[in-house]
């Protein structure tokens, strides 16, 4: 079902925040709140209330009925569907990213094993807050879009091969670690081949280990930095990068 792309106004953001806060106060901050279909109905109502939203000028409609297999697919769709000039970070577009979270919210919350409730976590996963270096990358919808738009398909595959509702440890450990790593295509290609399971697309076991020899974390935070001191990594091919990796990476090679 296609729907005009909208954004919450300030009252809409407050209304969305209040709905989530009313559920979050029922549990400890370290636990998810359990929400039902009634909660989603209330969210849907405010996302369609004309007094709380405004249309995004010149934007194409989006399909709010689409079901996505992963955050990678979600981000790819948003990258293709949202205006090309949309380049501001999420805390400068609070109303837009809160509204997008609202209309896709059932997919952004994990369904319980019995299927009668969904897990609602901290609101910064759904509503952007003022800039915080520890939280800006945790907005599920925005960062899925941003990785595709800013860094491209390879980086998006590395970081977003996760369920829709799941934060990525790879983002936590690697995305914030080194900007040269993120913008070096060959390093990202090598990382996808070495650390993602070819069948499931999930990160391999211990791939993010801090002390694990040849781990993705070691590559991004230690080894890549050392190589960049002596080589022009940005101009290298994937094969050239492989040839420079020390023996600790042998067991991870394709």
Entry keywords:
44% helix, 254 residues, 3-stranded antiparallel β-sheet, mainly alpha
Structural class: mainly alpha
Rg is 20 Å
Number of domains: 2
Q: What share of the residues does DSSP label as strand, in percent?
A: 5-15%
Shape: elongated
Low-confidence stretches: none
Helix proportion range: 40-55%
Number of strands: 7
Please characterize this protein's 3D structure:
This protein folds into 2 domains: 1-164, no CATH class; 168-254, no CATH class. It is built from 12 helices and 7 strands. It has helices at 10-24, 37-47, 71-81, 94-103, 105-108, 140-151, 153-160, 169-175, 179-182, 185-195, 216-228, 238-244, and strands at residues 2-3, 6-8, 33-35, 53-55, 62-63, 110-111, 118-120. The strands form 3 sheets. It has a 3-stranded antiparallel beta sheet. A two-stranded antiparallel ribbon has the order 1-5. Strands 2-4 form a two-stranded antiparallel ribbon. The model has no long low-confidence stretch (mean pLDDT 91).
């Amino acid at each position: 079902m296609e729907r005009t792309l909208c954004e919450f106004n300030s009252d809409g953001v407050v209304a969305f925040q209040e709905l989530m806060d009313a559920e979050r106060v029922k549990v400890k901050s370290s636990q998810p709140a359990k929400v039902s279909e009634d909660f989603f109905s209330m969210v849907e109502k405010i996302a369609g209330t004309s007094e709380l939203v405004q249309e995004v000028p010149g934007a194409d409609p989006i399909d709010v009925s689409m079901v996505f297999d992963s955050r990678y697919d979600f981000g790819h769709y948003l990258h293709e569907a949202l205006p090309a000039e949309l380049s501001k970070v999420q805390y400068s577009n609070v109303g837009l990213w809160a509204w997008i979270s609202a209309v896709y919210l059932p997919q952004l919350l994990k369904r319980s094993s019995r299927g009668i409730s969904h897990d609602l976590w901290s609101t910064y996963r759904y509503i952007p807050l003022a800039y915080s270096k520890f939280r800006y990358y945790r907005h599920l919808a925005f960062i899925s879009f941003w990785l595709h738009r800013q860094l491209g398909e390879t980086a998006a595959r590395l970081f977003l091969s996760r369920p829709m509702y799941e934060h990525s440890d790879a983002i936590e450990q690697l995305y914030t670690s080194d900007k040269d790593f993120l913008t070096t295509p060959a390093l990202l290609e090598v990382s996808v081949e070495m650390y993602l399971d070819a069948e499931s697309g999930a990160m391999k076991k211990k791939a993010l280990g801090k002390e694990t020899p040849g781990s993705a974390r070691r590559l991004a935070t230690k080894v890549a930095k050392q190589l960049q001191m002596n080589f022009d990594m940005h101009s290298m091919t994937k094969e050239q990068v492989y040839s420079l990796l020390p023996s600790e990476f042998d067991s991870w090679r394709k």
